């Protein structure tokens, strides 16, 4: 049985020298010292991957605070086969970066993401 960890990335803590990480049961909060609109969470995941032990195969569902989910959301999400792809995006073009990513795919895009 796998445990789902929820990672909440909150941008705009620009006065901090580094990201502030806190944990409460299965919820990890990263107070990001950056604010890159749709890239804030992805930047935080890359910058905190070693502290939070995100190995290359770690999978993330990237959503925004404006997204709403239904009752069966987690059940439906668990049915998505991610074995063949390092990322699955909402659309073929970027759509606010909403999608499923592996840490491996984020590392591959790190120059682009960290440049935002």
Please summarize what this structure is.
This protein is of the alpha+beta class and 116 residues long.
Sequence-ordered SSE layout with sheet pairings:
Elements (H helix, E strand, L loop, with lengths): L5 E5 L9 E5 L2 E5 L8 H8 L11 E4 L10 H6 L8 E3 L9 E4 H6 L1 H5 L2
Parallel strand pairs: 1-3
Antiparallel strand pairs: 2-3, 4-6, 5-6
List its traits.
116 residues; alpha+beta; three-stranded mixed sheet; three-stranded antiparallel sheet; 22% helix
What do the pLDDT scores average to?
87
Structural class, judged by helices and strands? Answer: alpha+beta
**Secondary structure: helix percent:** 10-25%
Distance between the termini: 36 Å
Radius of gyration: 14 Å
Largest sheet: 3 strands, mixed
Strand order across the largest sheet: 1-3-2
Count every helix, treating DSSP H or I runs of 4 or more residues as helices.
4
Question: Could you walk me through the main structural features you see in this protein, from its secondary elements to its overall organization?
Answer:
By secondary structure, the chain is α+β, with helices and mostly antiparallel strands. Helices cover 22% and strands 22% of the residues. It has four helices and six strands; from the N terminus they run E-E-E-H-E-H-E-E-H-H. The chain has helices at residues 40-47, 73-78, 103-108, 110-114, and strands spanning 6-10, 20-24, 27-31, 59-62, 87-89, 99-102. A three-stranded mixed sheet has the order 1-3-2, with helices on one face. A three-stranded antiparallel sheet has the order 4-6-5. Strand 2 and strand 3 form a beta hairpin. The longest helix has 8 residues, at 40-47. The N and C termini lie far apart (36 Å). The model has no long low-confidence stretch (mean pLDDT 87).
